[in-house]
């Protein structure tokens, strides 16, 4: 039986191969995801108007009303200017900084629609999400922060730890504390030395349980349990000698009888503990996930 491939004329297959190669070259040279537009646009930009540059300096200095008036005057005379989208972004920021979030958001959305670079679009999106957060539109703000975290993480002008922290704050305010803790954990784990890590810990419920006398809930893997404390300590030492970390012997009770559990690891959520349990099973250890809140020895 002849295959479908053999029935095609040779020249047709040659044309298909050539066309495919041309498409691949086009993708490599120009990019198909829009991320090269900033570099292309910056190759021959018109000079930045002094009015826009001064407004940016005024906003940085906290002179928001002065920046607003200057930007309104600039946009009135320069709607078609290359820097008009940036002026709209700065105007939105200046207005929002004065507490007029709906008006500021309107200008930010204009900047998003007309932005001529990914950086400007991402900055305007962040400003819009901040406005919705201030307006207590928490679900909407969380979706917008999440979009930024997913689609614009390559934009260096957007601090990712700030976006993740604000995403956690928005989801927490929207009534999703477990999801919020996930994002706070991301800030703590990925940006431990950044400016938002400490703030994330103050908002993470695992670090701040409702009962001020309670210890933060953590998960661990129970490797074995003994009625004899010396045997439990010997098992713990054997695990440490093998290179396992965070090994501890926990005194508790079962059926009113004192026992000593040998536990391994400290995990902030059950998902992390499940992954560690899988690794332990591959190493030949049969473990049980235990919460950090334990019954005290009676």
Account of the 3D structure:
By secondary structure, the protein is an alpha+beta fold. Among the domains are: about 55-135, Tetratricopeptide repeat domain (Serine Threonine Protein Phosphatase 5, Tetratricopeptide repeat, Alpha Horseshoe); about 220-290, Alpha-Beta Plaits, CATH 3.30.70.1070. Helix content is about 60%, strand content about 10%. The chain has helices at about 5, 10-30, 35-40, 50-60, 65-75, 85-95, 100-115, 120-135, 140-150, 160-175, 175-190, 195-205, 230-240, 270-280; strands at about 220-225, 245-255, 255-265, 290. A four-stranded antiparallel beta sheet has the order 2-3-1-4. A hairpin with a 2-residue loop joins strand 2 and strand 3 (about 255-265). Helix 10 (about 160-175) runs parallel beside helix 12 and helix 11 runs antiparallel to helix 12 (about 195-205).
